Amino acid sequence: MEKTISINAGSSTLKFKLFEMPEETVIASGAVDRIGIDGSVFTIKTADGQKKEIKQPIKNHEEAVNLLLNELLSQKIIKSYDEITGVGHRVVAGGEIFKDSALITDKALQQIEDLKEYAPLHNPANAVGIKAFKKVLPNVTSVAVFDTSFHESLPAKNYIYSIPYEYYEKYGVRKYGAHGTSHKFVAGRAAKLMGKPLEELNLITLHLGAGGSITAIKHGESYDTSMGFTPLSGITMATRSGDVDASLVAYLMEKLQVKNPNDFIDILNKKSGLFGISGISPDLRDIEDQKDSNPRAQLAIDIFVNNIVKYIGSYAAELGSIDGIVFTAGIGENSWKMRGRIGRALKLFNVEVDDEINQNGSGARFITKPNSGVPMMVIPTDEELAIAREVEKFKNEK
Ligand code: ADP
């Protein structure tokens, strides 16, 4: 029985999903949270719906990996480590080096670490996760799957910034985008739902989670995307600002007496977005709860919607025509209110939301009426499955 584990390592978290491959059956999933912080906790959910929580100090990612693998053995989810024949790691930034998923060699790992400035919140953590698994399972097919790879197809006119060209040549400053694994996965599923080949479709995919990005997909390939050099740009996110005028950085650094530019970037990454505007919470649910009593909650929602609508409008103009709009990730999959607001704001496209299906339906589905100018869909994303499928390709090459 061959199993593949998909790993998404953050600075203090390690999420995992274990699949039976090639059947794509989920055998176990879970996360280690608060690694290296007081209150570390490991949760694991098995295929029969059983959940187990272990609270114990977990000092680092290596300890987290050891605990996870031991637990798989002791719960008899696997009989020996040999059953795990593949590990797939989510890596956010692949720069211009990784145009596709890659087998993790010492060189590749070094390159992932060297790309840390392209995704400062993510790449170092991704690398720590890779090292931890390499140590415990040194001989397993280990693959890095990059958020940026799907955006490899962007034309230069959409990835070159309007700054001196030599900065691109010398320092690699350009748009790389992110969430590519998710955009690609939901686009593929949307094409199936629509009963058409992906290569014939122009889609706009909205990945709206804590981080959010929008991609214009032309004939099945990424053509433009809202995240940029790093995942900071684009739409308003839970705590990230999205697009801002770069001049405000220098101006506010002086006003706030911030000396290190990275400290200011930290404010744009961690204290801005829905949280910064509302002053309530990064979580849209908390903001929704207060929208009738707190004008800043309503303002955060209005800005969020308007930002997305502007991106859809400009991407539709770029694509020339659109065959569908896809909602995915935490907000996209769960907030019928947000989907409804966005749909109603798209009057230009004669979008007709079917309120009943939007609100009460579940899973992958159309949420617009048959006469809608553009169909809108909800497609649950599954980045872990997409990663496991990538690992399979490398196993087959062996
Ligand atoms: P991440 O980017 O961390 O992977 P997710 O895709 O899991 O994020 O999305 C998490 C976000 O989804 C939360 O911050 C929360 O605001 C939002 N969310 C989840 N369920 C709902 C809901 N029912 N209504 C509104 N927002 C929701």
Describe the structure.
This is Acetate kinase. The protein is built from 15 helices and 14 strands. The protein is globular, with a radius of gyration of 21 Å. It is of the alpha/beta class and 398 residues long. The model has no long low-confidence stretch (mean pLDDT 95). Helix content is 39%, strand content 20%. Bound molecules: adenosine-5'-diphosphate. Adenosine-5'-diphosphate (ADP) is lined by residues 209-211, 238, 282-285, 329-331, 334-335.
In short:
The chain is α/β, with parallel strands linked by helices. Helices cover 39% and strands 20% of the residues. The chain has helices at 61-74, 106-114, 123-136, 156-159, 165-171, 180-194, 247-255, 261-270, 273-278, 284-290, 295-319, 329-334, 336-345, 355-360, 383-397, and strands at 3-9, 14-20, 25-33, 41-46, 51-55, 84-91, 102-103, 141-146, 203-208, 212-218, 221-225, 324-328, 365-366, 376-378.
